[in-house]
Amino acid sequence: MASAAASISRSLRRSRRGGGGHHLLLLARGFVTAECHRPVVLHKRGSDILHDPWFNRGTGFSMTERDRLGLRGLLPPNVVSSQQQIDRFMLDMKRLQKYARDGPSDTYPLAKWRILNRLHDRNETMYYKVLIDNIEEHAPIVYTPTVGLVCQNYSGLFRRPRGMYFSAEDRGEMMSMVYNWPADQVDMIVVTDGSRILGLGDLGVHGIGIAIGKLDLYVAAAGINPQRVLPVMIDVGTNNEKLLKDPLYLGLQEHRLEGEEYVAVIDEFMEAVYARWPNVIVQFEDFQSKWAFRLLQRYRKTYRMFNDDVQGTAGVAIAGLLGAVRAQGRPMLDFPKQKIVVAGAGSAGIGVVNAASRTMARMLGNNEVAFESARSQFWIVDAHGLITEERTNIDPDARPFARRKSELGHQGLSEGASLIEVVKKVKPDVILGLSAVGGLFSKEVLEALKDSSSSRPAIFAMSNPTKNAECTPEEAFSILGEKIIFASGSPFNDVDLGDGKLGHSNQGNNMYLFPGIGLGTLLSGARVISDGMLQAAAERLASYMKDEEVHQGIVYPPISRIRDITKEVAAAVVKEAVAEDLAEGYRDMDARELSRLSEEETMDYVKQNMWTPVYPTIVYKKD
Ligand SMILES: NC(=O)C1=CN([C@@H]2O[C@H](COP(=O)(O)OP(=O)(O)OC[C@H]3O[C@@H](n4cnc5c(N)ncnc54)[C@H](O)[C@@H]3O)[C@@H](O)[C@H]2O)C=CC1
Ligand SMILES: CC(=O)C(=O)O
Ligand SMILES: [Mg+2]
């Protein structure tokens, strides 16, 4: 043994000197193991390996290695060769060079994202301090619009995994895989299947970026402890043909699972995460509409979960619509008189119409007549035009809002009428876009809105990211003048209207609600997230804005106030959970004590439980 070792070390010395012939000969005969091929004995597992630059090989770990080392789920599912890893890295470098040479480009926001991401990997406390202290500057980088660009370029940007990946190949394994995640406590999961990322379509496994971005806001706005958040990608394949052919794609290269097979994967994931973390809250994000509604109905009575695109967006839209009523100098109770044209009948559009019509109906007495009256205030236009009862194959989620045959004649409208026709005939108070079609609110549509019956017509161009906005604030203000209310899903600058006047550009994005919904649910210990809790959140956001602000056309707070508004939204959610007898308490605060808290005390309780980025005292303790 000793002489073999001596022989290897002699060979190695020779090889360093350039005379390794004898050693190579021995290797070829199978007598010795090359130094680099010797097994390495590791005293760590799971994410500790991924954080160790000496042992980490990222996506290069084979499936058996992933199982042996407790890595299953901690990496994107596609196992790639070291050459592919190098190709991916070089492609990213070349893209940067090309951008630098050819500009203008998206390089600048992507470079900012890279810098922030590196800080995130190095020092979470400092990362969140930087994010919170400069939220106005950095939210558009970690969130919309840049997060969309990040997802589109994810294979090049990918450095270190963040979050968990559950793939169709992991069926039967999820219950054990969840234990590969290093944290014993997880409060908040944001999960996506990557099928509709912002308005960018199916980005497959690269959609994990949106879950990471949303959780950044959970930490920054709601003060959820960053050690207790978990971004999740469920990879059931992709129908994006480009990704299916891309050798550098990080996900499963097969078409998406459908039907019962798909549902079985999501069921297994839900059972697994709730088995390990029974109190976790799961936010569903950017699932294509057909699954968004079905999964929400499937889980909302059993688990503490909600769908941000359906329910968060609805609440934010309602708050903005109520602001638009107030901006006209009318009481909020006049909301049921507003005529609203919605472009887009997906998860977001139908979610808004559902919740907004329920708000109207409540104001009108909450009976059948009230619901019918509320319904008749909405006109929904999708890719095939106005949705009416006459449509064949009507989407069941849109059916309740299809215009009735009896209404069509006297309005001079018919099935499939174009958006411009609808705006001309209806003369709506509001046009609201959740279509993912940039520029849909064309010059003609905006011109037609000049005949709106409102003194202050409202334009909500809510699609993301920026290029998908139905119109820009410049377009809206230049055609319709200074009186309008304008909101967009991604941020735009205010518009200089001359004479020292500014056209205010609001950001109407579910970021004003989802962090507070999650935090309020956590701190109330509510078993489920009820419609009442969501309504309370929306009403709190609406009433947060002062009369002076709404009269100036400011219907949403600036993002610099997001931590404060989130605290208030969370307190409203806690109060409602208590009122509905859903609250079970959190830590030392049991349900009975929660119910005794005044509004002010509830707000204090929320504030006390928000994490802030300060370095804690660290104490060393031997195992
Ligand atoms: N601002 C915010 O907080 C939020 C914005 N969104 C945005 O909403 C958009 C839509 O999301 P989903 O509803 O989930 O997508 P989706 O793809 O399910 O729905 C899009 C809808 O737009 C319709 N549409 C397509 N072309 C149209 C046209 N020319 N005219 C009228 N309608 C047309 C489609 O028929 C479909 O009904 C995305 O861009 C997303 O980023 C979604 C959630 C929140
Ligand atoms: C904001 C958001 O959730 C979306 O665009 O999908
Ligand atoms: Mg979304």
UniProtKB/TrEMBL annotation:
Record GO biological process: malate metabolic process
Domain named Malic enzyme N-terminal: residues: 120-300
Keyword terms of this UniProt record: Metal-binding, Mitochondrion, NAD, Oxidoreductase, Transit peptide
Keyword Metal-binding set for record: yes
Organism: Oryza brachyantha (malo sina)
Matching PANTHER family: MALIC ENZYME-RELATED, NADP-DEPENDENT MALIC ENZYME
Gene Ontology molecular functions: identical protein binding; malate dehydrogenase (decarboxylating) (NAD+) activity; metal ion binding; NAD binding
Name of the molecule in the record: Malic enzyme
Principal location: mitochondrion
Any Gene Ontology CC annotation: mitochondrion
Domain Malic enzyme NAD-binding: 310-578
Record-stated family: Belongs to the malic enzymes family.
Keyword Metal-binding assigned: yes
Positions of (S)-malate binding: R196, N464, N509
Residues binding a divalent metal cation, per UniProt: E285, D286, D309
